[in-house]
Amino acid sequence: MNKNEQMLLPSNRRVLNLVIANNTRDDTQFSTLPPFSSRMKHIKQEMTRNHLQFVRFEATDLHGVSRSKSIPAHFFQEKVTHGVYMPRGYLELIPKPKDNEVNHIRATCFNSDIVLMPELSTFRVLPWAERTARVICDTFTVTGDPLLTSPRYIAKRQLSQLQDSGFSLLSAFIYDFCIFGVPEIIDSKTISFPASPLLNNHDQPFMQELIDGLYQTGANVESFSSSTRPGQMEICFLPEFGISAADNAFTLRTGVKEVARKYNYIASFFIETGLCNSGILSHSLWDVSGKQNVFCSSSGVEQLTITGKKWLAGLLKHSAALSCLMAPAVSCRKRYSKESKDLKESVPTTWGYNDNSCAFNIKCHGEKGARIENKLGSATANPYLVLAATIAAGLDGLQCSDGVLADPDDSTDLYQSKPSEIPLKLEDALVALEEDQCLRQALGETFIRYFVAMKKYELENEEIDAERDKFLEYFI
């Protein structure tokens, strides 16, 4: 059946075809998923066993925040079949829309509905919400076309490109976030101080419930600890193949807020100007079967292979544009210049072995084998975009002769035709993103056009203090 014939199908038939297609592909890459009907049967049994009342159909907006519609559990199969409709603007507008905003950004049409299509393998009972489950959704137009601004769709497309090139990605996010006690919020613009002893001694139940809840939703936490500032916590996930790493991060971003409110706390991934929570993507490249880490040298020497160095060269080459997606707010970018007292427009992109101060930190020690930590990101970045852009840049490094090693046996030397720099201003990073043809093609012209327009609008209308208040309100 050709595309024109598909367009003639009734809307509900087209949606049903999308649901089945969305749930019969092998998203885990290395395990065969059960048929659609078997999964539905299993979910119905789980819903009965847990006496579920509601199911959330969740999708990420451009900022990585969950936007959802909840439906009564007895309508679940019907909604799986026909999809759940949501105004497109819920996923594409900036956090505080204004009356003239739709007219300002003309990259896409906001006044239409889109369809949330559930990926049934992500169905989980939510331990922090009473008798409620969630399912992560992909987004489509009502005629069945993927929403080109969907971060999850863009990430899946890049994972598919990686697989077509004979590779797979094993990755995990490492997040910082801050916990505040509600009494510490004096008013909408002032935060007195973080809850300094919050998680060191007497408040373990909060973290225990969060970690246990994440485990029940399929997001396995490898470790957690207090971080560098009072009230700041760090969570490290276990690495997983494919889209699961970003799904786990997406789950955390909502789950930590819900658990925090049960304890009368507020969790935020965005804190006041001058400080920044980090969002690190630790990743390694494997063969398509997931059996061999191609970053690891067979000689046992703790250094990247030629393939690993080429991947790193791609990250360095596109670091300016990457930083726009990974530090998408004015305040986030201050972390790039924290070590420099000079007034500069950009700073060099750094890399090193076992050096946590570098933008790209290569770790060869431990049972995981060689891996690269992409440390450009702040915790406010959308994890799906971080994943997608990192793959796109790395793939370009593998396929491009620019930046190839002069001496493959050298453990440290990596030569670039042009030294890479990270812009300190968001405006300059937006220019770098617009001029980066590789990322434009990989992420899609529609997405780039919309993302840049949205960020320019925010820059035109928001001062730093207002930005802080907006993001603290939005990301809690």
Describe the structure.
The chain has 476 residues and is α+β, with helices and mostly antiparallel strands. It has helices at 3-7, 11-22, 36-49, 76-82, 89-92, 101-104, 151-164, 204-216, 244-262, 306-317, 319-326, 383-399, 426-435, 437-443, 445-461, 464-475, and strands spanning 54-60, 66-72, 84-87, 113-118, 124-125, 132-141, 167-181, 185-187, 190-191, 221-226, 232-237, 240-241, 265-268, 279-287, 346-348, 351-353, 360-363, 371-374, 421-423. The strands form four sheets. Strands 7, 10, 11, 12, 13, 14, 16, 17 and 18 form a nine-stranded mixed β-sheet that branches. Strands 1, 2, 3, 4, 5 and 6 form a six-stranded mixed β-sheet that branches. Strands 8-9 form a two-stranded antiparallel sheet. Strand 5 (124-125) and strand 6 (132-141) form a beta hairpin. Helix 8 runs antiparallel to helix 9 (244-262), helix 10 crosses helix 12 (383-399) and helix 12 packs across helix 14. The chain is globular. The N and C termini lie far apart (47 Å). Residues 1-10, 99-108, 184-202 and 404-412 have low confidence and may be disordered.
Q: What coarse outline follows from CA principal-axis ratios? A: globular
Radius of gyration: 22 Å
Helix content: 25-40%
Class derived from helix and strand content: alpha+beta
Q: What order do the helices and strands come in, and which of them pair?
A:
Layout lengths: L2 H5 L3 H12 L13 H14 L4 E7 L5 E7 L3 H7 L1 E4 L1 H4 L8 H4 L8 E6 L5 E2 L6 E10 L9 H14 L2 E15 L3 E3 L2 E2 L12 H13 L4 E6 L5 E6 L2 E2 L2 H19 L2 E4 L10 E9 L18 H12 L1 H8 L19 E3 L2 E3 L6 E4 L7 E4 L8 H17 L21 E3 L2 H10 L1 H7 L1 H17 L2 H12 L1
Parallel strand pairs: 1-6, 16-17
Antiparallel strand pairs: 1-2, 3-4, 4-6, 5-6, 7-11, 7-12, 7-13, 7-14, 8-9, 10-11, 14-18, 15-19, 17-18
